[in-house]
Structure formats: C-alpha cells, structure tokens
Amino acid sequence: MSAPPVRVVLADDERMVRTALRVILDAEPGLEVVGEAATGAEAVSVVRELRPDVVLMDVRMPEIDGIRATEQILGGMETPPRIVVVTTFENDSYVYEALRVGAAGFLLKRAAAEDLVQAVRLVARSDCLLFPSAVRALAAEHARRQPAAPPPWAARLTEREAEVLRLMATGLTNAEIADRLRVGSATAKSHVAAVLAKTGVRDRTQAVIAAYESGFITPR
Q: Which residues are recorded as modified (4-aspartylphosphate) (predicted)?
C-alpha cells in the first residue's frame, strides 16, 4: 500500500508564482497541491481549514506578512504543517525572523525545480535540515558577537546530547548521526528528541538558531 501524498499549500501574492509552483509540484509523484492563498491572512485561514503537510510561504505578502502568518499557524494548531518560507534574497532579515518563529527552512524564488521538489520532500520527512549550509550561514550572521553566558538549557544537556546538537547543526540526518556516533538509529532519534525538548524548540532549524544565538555554537 503506497503512502498518502504530501499535501501542500502555496501562499504567494503573485498568481503566476503560485501557478508555476503548482505545475512543478503536481507533476511529481507523491506530492499534491491542495490549496492556495494570495495574502498572509488567507494563508492562515486556508491552512487551518485544509491542514496540509507542508506550506510554501512567501515572506512578503499583503495584510500580514509571511512571518506573522507562520507564527499564527504554528501557534494556533495542535499539529501544524511544516512551513518553508520563499524569498528573493537569502540574507533577507525577514527570512531569519521567519526561522526564529518556527519556519522549517527557506527557499529562494530562483531555485531550480528539482530543489523545490527536494525541499518539500525533505521538510515533510523532517529528520534533517533544509539546505543546512544556508541555514548555518544565516544563523551565524545573526549570532551574538560578544561572549555570552551559557544558555540555561546547556547545563541540562548530557555530553552526548551536546554532541548531537552540534552534529544536527551540520545538517546530518538521524541515520548519519547514528553512523557517526556508532549507535542505533532509535538511539540517535531519542537523542535528537531529547535535544529538542531540553532546548525548548520545535525542530532542528530552531535548534540550530538557538545554538548560534546563545553562543553554544560559535561562528567560525
């Protein structure tokens, strides 16, 4: 029995952009565009009604922007979708703020079709960072430049969990972390879950942001 398709909502104020994204995604097996929104407020409403797995969210939209829409969706649903913000410039401060409030990653509007498809599949699977080098670069750019006291959650991490957080920040999947640490996949998954719980974040992207912002990981 085949797995159900990954259900996607597109949120962008440009109809041509939404149409192009729909054509690309609907042509892929296992992916299905189930709804569209032209404003941030509409995106919140459509997502709450349709409950997709993934949302592609433009960061700059009328009524409310993609940051506030992301915040409202993630804060108002018991099982929220994974949200990928779509932007023209990767160093846009809007993108960083979207990641801070809970977006799972970001995608450039000029990205190739195969990168778009990969992004949707990766965030739906949710066991690795979306384009880790880009997320790390953005986090490092906004990291504290002055030495800071260790974050409160750092003392709660075991040595192994601290190591796992550093490996997560490099973009390794659960399977790759298990291989690196020579432990079983279930053990690696348990360590990752413990890191997310102790740092008080939603997923890997927010864990990386927290690690850099707090000084737990120092930009090189």
A: 58
